[in-house]
Amino acid sequence: MTTLLLTHPACLGHEPGPHHPERPERLAAILAALQDEEFAGLARAEAPLATSEQLTRVHPANYVQAMLGARPQPGEYAMIDGDTILSHGSIEAALRAAGAVVAGVDAVMGGTADTAFAAVRPPGHHATPDIPGGFCIFNNVAIGARHAQARHGVGRVAILDFDVHHGQGTQAVVETDPSLFYGSTHQYPLYPGTGHSNERGIDRNVANVPLRPNSGGAQFRHAWGEIILPQLDRFAPELVIVSAGFDAHKADPLAQLSLDTADFEWISEELLAIADRHAEGRLVSALEGGYDLDALADATAAHVRVLMR
Ligand SMILES: [Zn+2]
User: Fold this and answer.
1) Cα(290) to centroid of ligand 1, in Å?
2) How far does the centroid of ligand 1 lie from the alpha carbon of residue 111, in Å?
């Protein structure tokens, strides 16, 4: 298997403040882990900037313009909301983050890679077409899905999200379009407060399984294995995109689920098996959350290890 790792130094230049959990050290920890010799076989590329054409397949043009125009001067901050803060480097980081997923889609659709992982920040799954928030500016995975459809003629694209938070931004894109599928496990109650199991999309193309605080690997594997993956199998995606958040780890400070690295390895294997069955193995994964540096690095390494098999 050829697995492409996409990242860019600009993604370290998004600095939302000294006490913000979504900090550059997250990405640095991941990249350090992926320097290990066992990852020498990764193909590596710099993430390009997403273009206006790519962004506006998900976000209205006036939204994109507003985000580009919100860039603060060096040393200053721009508050998008209480949680979502821009530094001077944030907009380039956000454009690289979306561009990484687009480039990953190009690689797996073009056959230069089997799988791709976008080691990027800021994350994207809380950004709806019209509203940034939850640390997110552009919805990276939705932009990748729309690019696959528009540029590569892909019919059905599935986005699977095991971040501990519900990706209501992604769901907002998917729930009106039966060519897309969204499946998510997430802690409930927790930010953003959406993702009830009765949110099912236009054609039962949304599968949400909220998990109670303190749920662990057994509940997580049951949710995916018994509820989401069977629906995903019926959807038969031609491309699998993963919102890979690692904040459901038991060590994570922002949530109260109790997964360990083996659970992330398991879901990665299951999603790759779906891609093998329906999508010729094509899978593009993008980093979302994960705020304990050691757990994040360990779980991300396990995830990438599976993608390389
Ligand atoms: Zn999260």
Assistant:
1) 6
2) 31
Alpha carbons 160 and 180: distance in angstroms, whole number: 11
Q: Which two tokens stand for residue 162?
A: 């095991």
Helix or strand holding residue 263 (H, E): helix 261-278
Side by side, the strands of the sheet bearing 283-287 are 43-46, 3-7, 115-118, 283-287, 239-244, 157-161, 180-187, 206-211
Distance 279 CA to ligand 1 centre (A): 27
Convert the pLDDT of each residue in 183-227 to its tens digit.
999 999 999 999 999 999 999 999 999 999 999 999 999 999 999
Concerning whether 126 is annotated as a catalytic residue, the answer is yes
How many CA atoms are closer than 13 Å to the CA of 196, on its beta-carbon side?
A: 3
The rounded distance, in Å, linking the Cα atoms of 254 and 185 is: 16
Residues with CB under 5 A from ligand 1 (ion): 163, 165, 245, 247, 289
Give the Å distance between the CA of 245 and the centre of ligand 1.
Answer: 6
Per-residue pLDDT of 62-95, as tens digits, reads 999 999 999 999 999 999 999 999 999 999 999 9
Q: Rounded to the nearest whole angstrom, what is the distance from the C-alpha of residue 140 to the centroid of ligand 1? A: 14
From the list 205, 209, 208, 212, the residue with the least C-alpha distance to 237 is: 205
Backbone angles phi, psi at 174, to 5 degrees: -80, -35
Which residue in the list 14, 125, 126, 303 is annotated as catalytic?
Answer: 126
The percentage of the chain sitting over the pLDDT mark of 90, rounded to a whole number, equals: 99
